[in-house]
Amino acid sequence: MKSLLPLCLCASLLSACANAPTAVPDNRAFLTQETRLVLPAPTLAQPLYRQQLLSARTQRGGHQLLTVLEADGRQLTLVGLTPSGIRLFRVSYDGEAIRTEQLSSLLGGTTLPPVAQVLADVMLSYWPIQSWQPQLPRGWQLKDEGMVRRLRDPKGTLVSEIFYQDIAGEREPVRLVQHAFDYQLQMEKLAP
After folding, report:
1. Of 5, 8, 48, 89, which cross-links 71 as Cys (Cβ 3.0–4.6 Å)?
2. Domains of the chain: residue spans and CATH
3. What gap in Å lies between CA 160 and CA 35, rounded to an integer?
4. Of residues 135, 143, 174, the one with CA closest to residue 52
5. What is the chain's mean pLDDT, rounded?
6. CB of 73 within 8 A of CB of 120?
């Protein structure tokens, strides 16, 4: 029994390290592998709360998770859970830094895009174009074309597409295709 105590203590410490929050020292995300930009402020005119079933598809396969998104006027928080409710990650953005808590042992080897990239995709889907325009590098274009939002680089190459549907009178993102990093996110809004 005494020999098990140090082993349990080590396991507890390793588990705590896996959950330790980390902060990206800035508030930037990648549009492509070569292009970074400062994310818009995390504030919206109206608070936002969404529970979604998110399905990610990459060249290496697919993964499904539940997400809870909350923008309260001060910061944006995104939490990812397994379909059975186990927390995989929590990412928050306050305009200054992106902070993540990740259960690396559960996410290791999965096909999910990086958590900070998912945060940028969420903001690209929900934040108004006016919030994004001053952040975009010179020559980049973000346009709403009916129920599709398209992001193009200065050469006109399509980088991202976000498809929307009218759900109960609200324009909701249902699919994001990220051409630069070659993945897709399907988003299904869940009842609160």
Report:
1. 48
2. 20-190 (2.50.20)
3. 13
4. 174
5. 81
6. no
d(CA 158, CA 175): 15
**What is the helix, strand, coil percentage profile of the chain, to 5?**
20, 45, 35
Among all chains, which residue has been given the structure tokens 């936002």?
48
DSSP 132: H
Listed as own residue / partner, the contacts of 66-70 with beta carbons closer than 8 Å and 24 or more positions apart are: 66/190, 69/122, 69/126
- The torsion angle over the Cα atoms of residues 180, 95, 126 and 116, rounded to 10 degrees, is 40
Q: 18: part of which helix (H) or strand (E)? A: helix 4-19
**Taking the model in full, what pTM does it have?**
0.80
- For the chain, how many residues are written? 192
Question: What is the reported pLDDT for 110?
Answer: 54
Asked if 29 and 151 touch (Cβ cutoff 8 Å), the reply is no
For the record, the structure tokens of 183 come out as 């993945």
CA-based torsion, 112, 118, 121, 126: positive or negative? positive
Model confidence band, residue 192 (pLDDT cutoffs 50, 70, 90) = low
Looking at the predicted structure, is the pLDDT value of residue 27 above 70? yes
Burial 137-169 (b: 16+ CB within 10 A, else e): eeebebeeeeeebebbbeeeeebbbbbbeeeee
Element (H, E) at 12: helix 4-19
